[in-house]
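The freezer alarm interrupted the setup, so I double-checked each line after restarting. Inputs confirmed:
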Amino acid sequence: MTNETLTILTWLIPAGPLLAFFLIMLFTNRSRTLSWMIAWAGVFAALILGWIVALNTAAVGAHHLEEHPTVVASAFPWIPVGDFLKGTWINIGVAVDPLAAVMLIMVTFTVTMIFIYSVGYHNWSAPLGKILGVPNHLQEEPLLSRFFAFMSLFAGGMLLLVLADDLLLLFIGWEIMGFTSYSLIGFWYAREYHLGPDDIPHIPPYKASIKAFMTTRVADVVMLLGIVFFYFQFGTLNFNQAFTPENLSDVLDIIGPTAFGLMTLMLFAGTVGKSAQFPLHVWLPDAMEGPTPVSAVIHAAAMVSAGVYFLLRIFPLVAVASGPSGTDAVSFTIAGIGAFTALMAATIAIAQNDVKGVLAYSTISQLGFMVAAIGVGSYVAGAFHLITHGFFKALLFLASGSVIHGMEHGAHDVHDHHTDPQDMRNMGGLRKKLPITFWTFLIGGLALSGLPFITAGFWSKDEIFAEAWYLWDNDGFILALVVFVVLAIAAFLTAYYTARQISMTFLGKPRTPLAEHAHESNAFMTIPLILLAFFAVVAGWAGIPENFPVIGSMVNNHYVHHFVGSTIYKLMEELYALHLVKHPIENLPFNWEPLIASLVVALGGLFLGWWIYGRKPLETDQPDPVQRPLGPLYTFFNNKWYIDELYQRVFINPTTYLSEKVVYEAIDKKTIDGILHAIAKGFYGFGYYVKRFEEVVISGGVDWLKDGFLNISKEFRQLQTGRVQEYALISALIAVALIAVVLLINYGWLGQLFN
Amino acid sequence: MNPFKYASQIPELPTISPLLRDIIVVVVISTFLLLIAIVLIWLMRKVIARMQKRVGPNRVGGRYGLLQPIADVMKLLSKEQIVPAGADRLAYELAPVLIVVASLLVWAVMPFGPGLIGVDLNIGLFYIMAISSISVVTFLLAGWGSNNKYALLGAFRAVAQLVSYEVPFILATLIPILLARSMSTVAIVESQTVPFLFVVPLAAVIFFISSLAETGTTPFDLLEAESEIVAGFHIEYSGMKFAMFYLAEFLGALFMSALFATVFLGGWNIPLINLMLSLFGVQSIDLSAMGIAGSILGLIVFLIKTFFIYFIFLWIRATWPRVRVDQILSLNWKILVPISLVLILVVAVLDKMIPEGTNDLVRAGILLASNVLIAFVALEIMRRNGRQRRELIVDSGLVESGKQEVVEAAPLH
Amino acid sequence: MVEQVLFVLLAIITLGSALVVVTNRNLFHAALALMVTFAGVAGVYITLDAGFLAMAQLLVYIGAISILIIFAIMMTRRLMQAVEAPFNSQRWLGLFGAVVTFAILAVVLGRYWSPQPNVNNLVASIDPEILNGSVARLGASFVNPDAYVLPFEVASILLLAALVGAIVVAWPKVEDQS
Amino acid sequence: MIPLSWYLLLGAALFSIGIYGVFSRRNAVAILMAVELMLNAVNINLVAFWRYLTPEKSAGMAWAVFVLTVAAAEAAVGLALIISIYRSRDSVIAEDMDLMKN
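Predicted 3D structure, all chains:
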């Protein structure tokens, strides 16, 4: 395929969903069927085009890509800035390189699956009675058109972000996703909860959406500042133009390592917000209030990946900032935040009971994995884990949605609308009831916990471990060791809570009538599960290192490493030559330690989880087995480290207090209003005398005048007979008279008229 | 001062002063028409009688009743002149005269043959329309003048029908004008190497229907629906005045068929002959160049065509039932006018798009195809509407004919 | 000479019938006289070599407008029969106005265009080709963007508006039609 | 050969007659007829000027045609108005329609 065709196709990838959004919003929002069909058309177009472009990119071949990573690059001037007559424009453009290609494969596929799933999911929505503002059970979602419109807009924004070749367009896609995530999390805006004492505490959707929006805003403001800083320093927003060895070294020399690191960290703040890293991760669990497809698309396929993707995009910046001539603070911050988030989220996840809550925290922790990996400088591992995680986490979310769905069916059948269908304690024994869901969930869970040698998660995690270990082992990078250990613990917990979740949900026998009467979802929902399960397994095999014992020799090509690595291979080589980065993209030697570590954590975690929860399943209303041994720690985890409460006290309460008491009471009411009242009184006094004057003099005079006119008009009114003909006659006579006068003046006297 | 150029004169005739020639032409044409009307009456009675399994006039003048019309005229002449009480004399007396005058005036531009034409106006067809619009007035005069409510009703009906059917009539006439690029009847006749009937059949159909309505023959003969309003606007007329209306009616029918023959059948041209000859490579014949022989030949051809069309008039008259008023008007405004508007647009654009010097057959074929296409689409739409209408009737449960009127008339309001 | 006689006859017919129009007590006869006036004006057009306009005059005025007027007269028939003064109180004033108007117009005419033939050198006789082409030129000028295409379109819109407006205004009220 | 001024005089006379009718008739329909007379007078002038001054152009005829159009529209709407007034007020006398009186 010629490059021009490829360029056109690349431009067309985001066009499909965006067009679908406008079509649905403007025209077809009355017809539900038409709406979801249009949305499908959009994403299917994006899927086909995206895969065509991606596979064409892959077909170029790693060696050629290492020389020229950017396969498609097309841009046109958009905003004139500064002295634009000289042609300093901000361009809008798309670029496809291996990283974008793999993202395209993952994003388009998962998003399409989610769209298919959504139709099945929304045709039978939330239970009757319990929740306001949502359709009754076995009724169709009334706002389906709106849902698909926003989903399409979301997909379009994500694809825009993936394909963007400069920071501005990327930021636009970023913000589009921010807005749509807000409107989708709060999709059931009318929901209100009347929580029982033992219910899982959650806030209603509209609050959750506001929370997510505000939290990410905090990050985005910093990120925008970072972008401005970036533009100020580099003079361009385009990645390929900015990230050249000359530019990087120049900027580093000019502004010094500290400012450089600061710029990097400001940009990284965006990732912290979008990918829900530690300080700003609080929005993500509450975002589970949205419909499950939304959770899947936000927390697995698109939005949270966007943060990591952005971090990968600016990886050269990170590498240089934490390079030999940079400051270690950068890498310490990034990797530290990542590792801490991974551990914290994992610990929280082991004490959650909401089936989607567990997945939410596991998402946070997996994102922590990626961020930590990138922090210590392992580019490929981060990207690889990003892709595989996208697949199996989407699978897990959709499967959990299917579970909730089955539970709601049960709730409908037994007319019990007070038991929470999302609470794992109310489930159990669903393996018989939802076979397809069970098997797909099992595959996804195993992939998440990294079951060795088969699942995708194992290979990507193993990659991260290998990189971290190599960094420690090779150049004694202490941070790498820390990250390695922390991530190992996190991985262990991951496997543990995955096993716990599967056991509590599917194994044993039903603990509530809901679970008794649950049954399998429709084909709309199960088929995407199966397809995703396939990828959740296979996606990892592309990343098997060739120097891995036995299997490696079978595959004999570390494909992902070469392919993704080739994105910045050349650049890193040159930077390495300039001693700006610690080490280029290189093939790792095989080490036993990380392999053993990942084997141990995965299998050990799974076994422990099964030992506690699967071997003798929970009975009804039996408290969590680990509650007593862990003691206060459990409540600490269960309450999510009290971070929400902390924020409540530290940020929100002071702010409200300030605004309430100080600004409103003291400043506004007392000071300003006081002054205004004083002025008002003055004017009252003045106005009184003005009023008197007006009454006596003006209105008196006006009355007199009015009476005069009245009397005159009494006389003149007789003229108005209301007869058209009279008016016409009079006006005509006047006109004739005028003409006559004019003629007489022109021609002199009548006497000389006729000569 | 007179802008109208006369038709190509026949060389054999002696040249005489224009004024005298005008008078001669007028006298000849009107006499010819007034005489031919007698033949028409006999023809109508005979043909319709045969179609209705009757014998028809067979006593007066031989077993074919050839002299029957003469007897009729005698009877009418000898009848008493009755003027209804309270009649508006002016209008009452004026109407019959005016209608005959109008129906004679239009023949001035009718090309009977090469050179056989009263006056070849460069706006001939326009002239015809104008004059025929005068005849509408006479109905009003008659209806109003003969102080009679049936007459007035008949006049109203007649005017409503005629005025509204003038629209598709004129629109359909515009299409031959477009193709011939002239309003002169002679130019239109000469430009028909392929008769326009085969070029724009849809226009021909619309023209024919609206000419039926214009002359007020079946199925559009509401203006003299004997069963409803006794005899329409000329109920109060008797004797010769009635005969004048009668005469005007026949002349109108004949004129419409003659006009159809002129505009759509190529007038005095022998159809398609020159194309045939040119196919065989023979020298093409031009009647207008053959002097008096050509004139006579052309006249014969013209009369054959005219009487063929007139026969079709009689045929319809003998066989078709009458339609309702609302049906007439809705047929006009909802079907004929839109179709003819679309047709004018399409034909004009196509005719411009076809490059000059294209073979006439090719041009004709393209236009024919467009016509057929439009006709098909129009029929499809009408079929849809008809089905909807039927469902409406069936749903409303009024299926017996008596109440069906209500349902069908409803959309008109 | 013949033409002048013809013209004078036409003028007499036209003006006479026009006078009938404005003076006759019976409206129906007034309408008939109006038709005669229109016909006379058409004749005047013919003497002016404007055959097309003459035909248009017949078609529009006699064929359409007169019919409309007669319809209106018949629909308001009851009033027609009631004996009533045809003129209002200001007839003499109106007559005066009309006469003065005519006088002024005549004066101005006499000033500019002398009544004698062939005085101010006008286009007396022109070759018939120009006149024969006049209709074609008229049609061309209606669709010529440099000439009258805009007024032409506006006129069409005006006709449409008049159609709709007439229907709406004369439409019987809802309670009228049972 | 007819002088131009004859046509202009004819037009002037017709116009004046129309004016007289408009001012002095009581019946609205009659007034409308008088208006038509005036329009015809105008047309006569247009065509006469066209014929005598610029026969090779088409301005005069074109505007005559426009006047024709306007007359048609005016008659249609005017008569519709008259009929609706007749329906509502049972009168077509112009003098009776003096709702704006005083």
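Quick read of the result. The first strand of chain A starts at residue 72 and ends at 80.
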